[in-house]
Automatic annotation (TrEMBL):
Residue numbers of N6-(pyridoxal phosphate)lysine PTMs: K49
Coiled coil: none
UniProt-annotated binding residues for substrate: R298, Y302, E329, Y356
Protein name per Swiss-Prot or TrEMBL: Diaminopimelate decarboxylase
Length: 413
């Protein structure tokens, strides 16, 4: 997208605003598909938690993607967006048996990650196919909060609990049709991924009726110029060869599944905010924008580095700024960033805003969540309206009749 397009969107829909480029989403989907073209049966299940706007889900469905969901609400969104139940995998963590049963009634693929629920579900519903999420005890990911396959993680059934797992399967006679893992996000070293894959292959040998092996995702995308990214082409070549060899050994053509989220939508997203104040202190020049971590929490939560550009003055002299928000606590998007000279009223563009930005947004400080705009075939299409004050109070119950207003005492001289 060009700066002129983004500035026009900001003028039309106001600030702040999220913008998503469909062309980039499509190219990322095709890139990953091509990396594994040597696999006879490939399934890419888009991770809805990254960006769950129903228009984005419809776009993914049109590409032939499946859907990775982590809540019953995401399952319902997927069905509303047109996904067939059998193309949706439901991988919750720590939810009730009742929610899992609700998802099962909708006909989606169930993925269970703990022995307690596995035993309960298998005892009650032995005929419903179940995938099992394994914890391979591999530390991978760009931040401890997004590394989910290590020994202290709450996710998955430990590989050291395989004997217990097999006993449950034998006693309940349940149908295990898939094996799954997810080691974390922002994986750089494909050898770590391949190592974890070998653990998954070894585990899969214990089950005779598998239809698929799900390797999760976690592919890293570049967040700044010169940044490292996962080499999906190299991973595709190496894992394809190993997967095809395993299928021959297993005696059955299995489906290779992935659950890309950030890889598909992160680089497609732009977040636009207007500069309210340029504030010079004794040590820092702050550029304060009309947004905060209520709209883009990743820098404060993960230390994520989002490239920030001044699209109102792209040719201006570069200076150092700390870009901050309007939330009433420390609220920093980037410290001492080299950005083209900023004036009050300029529009700043935060890149890589497609994944885990709107979906993690909140109404903190009673601020409204921004609109979302899809840039598709050279046109800007509104896919979510900006919230209003009515939205903010819609579900609140005003108990004003319970209280009386304190009467002001008048002082008598």
């Amino acid at each position: 997208m060009k700066n002129a397009d983004l500035l026009k969107i900001a003028k039309t829909y106001g600030n702040p605003v999220y913008v998503y480029d469909s062309e980039k989403i499509i190219s990322q989907f095709n890139r990953l598909t091509n990396a594994f073209k040597g696999v006879k049966r490939l399934r890419l299940n888009y991770a809805a938690k990254a960006l769950s706007n129903i228009s984005i889900l419809r776009l993914m469905n049109s590409l032939g993607s499946g859907l990775d969901t982590v809540s019953i609400q995401e399952v319902q969104l997927g069905l509303m967006a047109g996904f067939k139940p059998e193309s949706i995998i439901y991988t919750p963590n720590g939810v009730s048996l009742e929610e899992i049963e609700e998802a099962a009634k909708l006909g989606v693929q169930i993925n269970i990650d703990n022995l307690s629920v596995l035993e309960q579900f298998g005892s009650k519903h032995p005929d419903i196919p179940v995938c099992i999420r394994i914890n391979p005890h591999v530390m991978a990911g760009g931040n401890s909060n997004i590394s989910v396959g290590h020994i202290d993680s709450k996710f998955g059934i430990s590989i050291h609990q395989i004997p217990h797992l097999l006993r449950i399967v034998e006693l309940t006679q349940m149908n295990i049709n898939g094996i799954h893992m997810h080691t974390g996000s922002d994986i750089l070293d494909i050898d770590v991924f391949l190592y974890a894959s070998e653990i998954l292959f070894e585990t899969a040998k214990n089950f005779k009726n598998l239809d698929f092996i799900d390797f999760g995702s976690g592919f890293k995308v570049p967040y700044k110029e010169g940044d490292i990214e996962t080499n999906v082409e190299e991973l595709g070549k190496k894992l394809t060869d190993r997967f095809n060899t395993f299928c021959k050994e297993y005696g059955k053509e299995l489906t290779l599944a992935f659950e890309p989220g950030k890889f598909l939508v992160s680089e497609a997203g732009y977040f636009l905010a207007k500069v309210n104040v340029v504030k010079q202190t004794t040590s820092t020049v702050f550029a304060s924008v009309d947004s905060g971590f209520n709209h883009l929490i990743r820098p404060m939560l993960y230390g994520a580095n989002h490239t920030i550009e001044n699209i109102s003055n792209p040719q201006g002299r570069e200076r150092y700024y700390s870009v901050v928000g309007y939330i009433c606590e420390t609220d920093t998007f980037g410290n001492n960033r080299r950005i083209n000279e900023i004036s009050e009223g300029d529009i700043l563009c935060f890149k890589n805003a497609g994944a885990y930005c709107f979906t993690m947004a909140s109404n903190y400080n009673s601020r409204f969540r921004p609109p979302e705009v899809l840039w598709h075939n050279g046109k800007a299409i509104l896919i979510r309206e900006r919230e209003s004050f009515d939205d903010l109070v819609r579900n609140q119950v005003d108990v004003k009749d319970l209280f009386t207003t304190a009467k002001e005492e008048i002082a008598v001289k």
